[in-house]
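User: Run a structure prediction on this.
Assistant: Running it now.
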Amino acid sequence: MQDALRFLADERAFRLRLFCEGTLVGIGVGIVVALFRRLLELTEIYRPILFDWMAESFPAGFAGWGLLLVVIAWILARFLTVEPLISGSGIPQVKAILLGRIRMNAQRVLALKFIGGVLGIGVGMSLGREGPSVQLGACVGQWFSRLRLRPRSEERFLLTAGSGAGLAAAFNAPLAGVIFCLEELTKSFSPLVLMATVAAAVSAATAAGSMLGMTPVFHIGDLPSLSLAHAALLFPLGIFVGVLGVLFNRVLEAALDAYQKFPLQGAAKYLLPLFLSFGLAFVLPEVLGGGSALVDTLIRKEFALPFLLLLLTAKFAFTMLCFGSGVPGGIFLPMLVLGALGGAVFAKFTAMAGIFDPSLTVSFIVYGMAAYFAAVVRSPITGSVLIMEMTGSFHHMLALIFVSITAYLTADVLKGEPVYDMLLERLLRARARIHQVMAHHRTIAEFIVGEGSGLDGKTIASVSWPEDCLLVQVRRGETELVPTGPLVLQSGDFVYALADDCDITELEELAEEKIIS
């Protein structure tokens, strides 16, 4: 407990240490993620060459590739048996760790997630590198913290910083990595989280950029400015893509349910998406892999509406099949590709109706990505900043935010559940027994009193705190307050409590802002 509370005595020194340690964590994450990205880029280069060779050497080439896919399926099955936490994206797992609901063996997850992600995404499955990068970053943050023998309270900050650094390195997007941590992972603006995450995200993006280059992920160029008439189309675009985003989440949950009932187990469970990727390589290769190359193709070439609809449908269905199987890989990048396709379809429809200038299609592809992210993840600011950094277009921020908020509100009206919250709930239900195992692991929790919350305007003595929860400090602005019973909490107060890991969720729900009617 003394180690956990030490930072409260000298917060300035603690912030400086977090900044320095965050920088070191970011450099490590940048190197790991850059290597991960580079291996995936090599598979994108050599996979078509290999498929051409197999077509020329039929049937021996086909038989050899089929045998390789069986071996990969067996390896993935073994990996997931040894370490179930490498399944899928990795972002829900990080959120569960931050909530104190599960534990992670950082070294094992780092190794198996890295190899499993390269194998699954490398052979062409419609999965992204960003979720694995976030989890790899979290592993580096936790590993560094434990090597330095840091208390659990500090480990949470470094784990969060490593997660943001993973996203920053995956997409050359340091600002998006920081906002992602605040808006999605912690859902609060903590100065301590901000300090560590900024240092980690910037250093990770710099380290990865020095190895791979600092160019934007999508090669968009300068986007043309929209006239007032064309800007008005952002509203229906946001609604259209918002509906597609809600459909994405609901079908994804159905795909996960279907896989749970799938009669095949072990390696056989992964053979269907693996062999389908092989078939699509000769029929519709555009939908293979994460899809960043497809976005670049949409920008350079003009496709007919039927082919765009075919790409949208095929990419959607293939992503559901691949992610539902549980193979290590994310949905971040495929999600953005689907948004780009949705924007292209919308632009084509409106151009056919004579109310849209086809020369602005690229702009609507970019806006569609931001809108789809906002509808699926329900983090509109992260989506807007991410697309801005991924495209290198910094003067369309207002349009990106507007279309993202429109898609967000559309998903909200349709009662769409945020995808990572849905995946987190599924993960926790599957690991319900973990709660008892972790019930007595103590840490310092930091949370902010939200307006209208169960803490706002209440005295400390009148609040039903979790059992064995000990308040250690209340910070109001720059003033430190002693948490005595008569103290009245106010919205905006930072509260520090020594509590069990599994009680962190309850504390955050108590402090969560409520709408006052």
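The chain is about 65% helix and 5% strand.
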